[in-house]
Amino acid sequence: MNDKEPTGRPEINEEGLSESNAARRLRLTGESTDSRLDLSDVPNDFKSKLINFWYHHKVKVLMTAFFAFALSVVIVQFASQSDPDLFLMYAGPDYLAPSDSSRFSDTMKELAEDYNGDGEVKIRITDIIFSTDAQMEAAKAEAAARGEEFTFDGMLNQNNSEKFTYEVFSDNAIICILAEDQYREVAAAKGFVPLRDIFGDTSVKGAIDEYGIRFSETDFYEFYASARIFPEDAVLAIRKLSTISAITGKSKAEKVHAYHVEVFRRMAAFEFPEGYVPE
After folding, report:
1. Nearby residues of 233 by Cβ (< 8 Å), 6 or more positions away
2. CA 78 to CA 72: how far, in whole Å?
3. Least confident range of 25-39, 114-128, 150-164, 166-180
């Protein structure tokens, strides 16, 4: 008989090369006795390099893929968001509840327009809570009169004060509703548009000087309950065109500023509807 008993030792093929039983079976039948990939007889080609790379670096590859996907989601979301149509700022010692700010934003939508043409009116209110030295002393006196202990975060107040100085002269703080002390700081630096440039003179209802209007004395404040979330001494004013616009694009900034001036004028010149009797 020509059949040989398997010895388990490598046999010599026709080319004079030794091969294992498994390799011989694979050569003759195309079948493997092991369902797993046998890399011992696979040449060191691209496929084997790829398998080797995956084996040693799969964790890094998966992490990189995950962060790339997360970054792409953030970029898409950011790109799909348009700028607000109207920028307002409040600064003072009194805290504004988010729900109150939201209601005031809804009110401002009645005066604003879809400036950027995205199909909806968006309002951004930047609120910065901090006290001047005079406001802090007044708060201490009020606490003492009530027999209460006065607590104060000096570091946070300083940080917010510095933030206010930056934000009030940036591109994102155009219509301002400020507690009077905060208003005086900016007015002293001539940071507001004179009322004369908007209305032709300063004989505007509630005007306290050449720049500002006592917000609580306007019909707008009286008519809309949502506007009565600000301190009674709050002053309505509009910031001059930011010097940053010279870098970011002056022509565009001038158009945006002119639009805000018009909304400011609507707020200051608002009149009670016919038949309305203030309380």
Report:
1. 179, 180, 214, 216
2. 10
3. 25-39
- At position 64, the amino acid (one-letter code) is T
| Tokens (6 digits) for 100 | 């109150």
Instruction: Check residue 56 and give left, alpha or beta (phi > 0: left; psi -120 to 50: alpha).
Output: alpha
- Full-model pTM: 0.69
Residues 82/120, Cβ–Cβ less than 8 Å: no
Handedness of CA 21, 25, 31, 37 (dihedral sign): positive
How many residues are there in the chain? 279
Q: What count of other Cβ atoms lies within 10 Å of the Cβ of residue 22?
A: 14
Euclidean distance between CA atoms 178 and 193, whole angstroms = 15
Average pLDDT over the chain reads 80
Paired tokens of 269? 């010149």
One-letter amino acid at 177 equals I
Kindly report the CA angle at 125 between 255 and 154, in degrees rounded to 5?
Answer: 125
d(CA 190, CA 186): 6
